[in-house]
Amino acid sequence: MSSPELDRLIVEHIADLDSAATRIDLIEERIWKAHAEALEDWSRAMGWGGDFDIEDDLIAAPAHWEVDESKQAWFEIDFGPEDDELGLHFNLMRLTGAGGRVCLRFGYNGLRKPWKAAARQHAEALQQFGFVMTPYADFYTDCTPVFTNMIEAVESGDFSPATDPLRAALDRAKAAEPTFTAILKQLKAI
């Protein structure tokens, strides 16, 4: 279909498209809330703290990563490291596993240059826990939902099976926490 034909269809159906976009926003919010609840439940069960408000970054961290009431490091629900290049318009693509990825990203509140050197030393050890290092020395582990599970979750309103990949990523984060802690101690961040 040529661009003028597609443009005509879009204009003819703009009211429907506007309604669909509004609905997409509502579905995204429901999924973010499910992720926030799963993150909070898991964090509390593990004795970790975090921020679980969907209006902010959704993060979790062990208590000993906090110094003077400031988090030095954390795990954050984020999109895949290459997702910006995909040209996806709706976050719902990532949140449902239809395109792009959802990841649990390790965040560090310190200078990047020393971090990069230390991170490279431990990249292989962290890879054993499912954490992949980007060229910028950021670590991610995938928690992209299974698309068919998300279709069922959106229809039923039960997001617990849809958040299983997030809980699995959090379990990997807990297993990798001693290695991340060793890096933070090496940098004298904690």
Quick tags:
two-stranded antiparallel sheet; six-stranded antiparallel β-sheet; 6 helices; 16% strand; single chain; alpha+beta
What does this structure look like?
The chain contains six helices and eight strands. It is of the alpha+beta class and 190 residues long. It has one domain. It has a six-stranded antiparallel beta sheet with strand order 1-2-5-6-8-7, covered by helices on one side. It has a two-stranded antiparallel sheet with strand order 3-4. The chain is elongated and about 60 Å long. The termini are far apart. The mean pLDDT is 93.
Q: Summed up, what is this model?
A:
With 190 residues, the protein is an alpha+beta fold.
Q: What would you call the structural class? A: alpha+beta
Share of β-strand residues: 15-25%
* DSSP helix fraction: 40-55%
Question: Which geometry do the CA atoms define?
Answer: elongated
- Strands ordered across the widest β-sheet: 1-2-5-6-8-7
Number of helices: 6
Rounded radius of gyration (Å)? 19 Å
Domain count: 1
Number of strands: 8
The chain-level mean pLDDT equals: 93
The rounded distance between the terminal residues' Cα atoms is: 58 Å
Order of helices and strands: HHEEEEEHEHEEHH
Helix-strand blueprint:
Layout: H1 3-12, H2 14-46, E1 49-51, E2 59-61, E3 66-67, E4 70-71, E5 73-79, H3 92-95, E6 102-108, H4 112-127, E7 132-133, E8 139-142, H5 147-156, H6 164-186
Antiparallel strand pairs: 1-2, 2-5, 3-4, 5-6, 6-8, 7-8
